[in-house]
Structures are given as structure tokens and as C-alpha cells.
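Thread: zinc ion complex, take 2
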Amino acid sequence: MNDEQATSEPVEQETKPSLLATISLMLSLIPWAMVGQALLIDEYRLGPRWLRNFLSIDLGILILAMLVATVSSIICGVMGLAAIERDKFVRGKWKAITGIVLAGCFGIFVAKNMLFSDGTPMGAREVARAPNCIVHLKAVSTAITLYADDHEDQMPSTLEEMVDGTYIPLRSTILACPLTGQEYQFLGAKKIWRTNDTEVAVYCNGDHRGMRNVMFNRGYVRTITPDELEKLLADAEKAGQSDR
Ligand SMILES: [Zn+2]
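Output below.
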């Protein structure tokens, strides 16, 4: 006690912020900012084109980059805390703790969404390499949005048409279900994008715990029962026949 009082006398030793704590906090914000931006793109189509392209496509690399930022943030935060503990003239304890907590929450978020997406736990490498079916369909949705922006709101005649390096990278795997490997079925050929809430644009034939994944013309992706899908497809066929 007396020691502490002695050192807190006007010795005027300056404290300096911990660089590691600052880096930890900044790194922990990156993945969350990316998730936020990806959600905004989904809902409101915000952001510059290069960022939209970056966020919607090559999800494997994107998730890997986010995980690297997350792990680095936790490491920097812990090292920062240790440094602060050692040297009382280094400050930034709460920055380091915030960084660790934010990065940790992101890790849990990714684990919850990716690892158990199809009921089967996957290794970290598979998480980075094989995003789930819904993630694929959302990426296809964003690609169609980019395509429609350039083609008077019209969808392409086939999904493969978008695999030209502009809308979908040449070696991309997003046009097939990552679980079953089946190609997605496309019903939107040359139709106007984002005009109908109930019309199926793209769907996956694969079985996802007894459910089916569907992308509607409006752009959103939903998981529905096989019966619901069958009914929607029957409706689509009826509508197609009356068009002719
Ligand atoms: Zn699927």
C-alpha cells in the first residue's frame, strides 16, 4: 500500500498506449464490418461494385480472411494484456479486452453458422472451402443482381452465362450445391429480377435435413419443405403455360 502511494507521487511518468491492444481492437472490427456490409448488400444493394464483387464471391477466401483477422486479434489482445500486466506505464487494457471479446464472438458466430450448417460438424478447412448451400444461393443472388444491373433488370438466360469473370469468377463453384454437388435449377431465364415475392428463381434439389433451399425472384433465400417447393414449381409451370 505504502509502495503504491510512493510511486503515485508526482513523479510524472507518462503512460503510452499499447500498440498490440489497438491492433487487436482494429482486427476484431474487420470481420464484423464485413458481415455488416454483406448484410447491407443483401438487403439494400449498397457499396461500390468492387466491394460487392469481393464480398459476394470467393466466399471461401473471404471467410478464411475473416478467420485470420479473428485469430490474429485474439493473439494480439492476449499479448497486449500480458504487456500491460508487465509494465504499468502501458495502457489499453479495455481495448485489448474489447478486441478479444469481439473476435471471440465472431468466432462463435462463424462456428454456429458454418460448422453445423447441414447438421454435420466440419473441420476449419472445410468451412473455408465449402460454404453451405444457402451461402451459395445468396452469392448467386448477388451475382444475378450485378448482372441485372447491367442488363436492364433482366436475368440471364442460363446461370452459366454469368460465369465470365465479371459476375461470377471463372472457376467458381457457387452454381452447385456444396452438399450434394448437384447444379442449381434456374427458372428465371430472361425474366425481370426482383419483381415477384413468390416466384422461384433458383432452387436446390438437394435434401437439407428434409428441407429444400430456394431463392425467390425478389432475391432472398429461404428454406422450405419439399411439399411447399413442389407447389411453387407447379404454380410456376402453370404460369409458364398460360404465358404461351
Ligand atoms: Zn443444396
